[in-house]
Amino acid sequence: MTRLRGGAVIAVVMIFAVTGCKDLQDKGSPGAPGTGGGGGAALTAADALTVKGRAPKTGYSREKFGSAWADTDSNSCDTRDDILKRDLKEVKFTDGDCKVSSGVLDPDPYSGKDVTYKRGRSLVDIDHLVALSDAWQTGAKYWDASKRIALANDPLNLLAVDASANRGKGDGDTATWLPPDKAYRCTYVAAQVAVKKKYGLWVTAAEKTAMKKVLATCPGQKLPAGGNPTKAPSRFKAH
Questions:
Q1: Which residues pair with 128 in a beta bridge?
Q2: What is the pTM of this model?
Q3: pLDDT score recorded for residue 239
């Protein structure tokens, strides 16, 4: 069942129907992973991804992708609050309509259970669907800082999820981790494919095999689109 959600992000995408898989919990916000058409079926896109071995993790740090939750879409709200506002229900704010103080993941896409968010507690994380360290090892280490900052703050690559499920994922790719809620796996993998395609990241042979195995169970799964540009504004820097 598709839930429509609102949020402050800059691209406009189309809502699509998912065949055989649960839709992303989205309020219709532009750039939400799992929403939108364009680009063809997810299975076709996965098959077209470049296959290479992982580059060394040497040199990776979070700081290579800029400061956390930079306001790259220039809407005066940081990226974390943008995603919380997009993905939570019953949202309440502190100081205006930017700083999210509470809300509910109804349900959490990874576990399927409801999770209450309250600011200052760690029950809800914002997951990078393609983990930054995975991106580093599959092409991002060779990018300029602007593109890495864009990836780290792109709504297409971000999702509010249960913290315990997210920490179980770590920096795993499709070959090593999938959401416990099996009904969500098609949507999840399609979103990862979309991010890797958009940013030109490659996949390992095992990762592509795992992606195609999941998506073969839902051949009608569309490829999400939208999100932010792949180049962050020049005022943002990374170390």
A1: 158
A2: 0.84
A3: 82
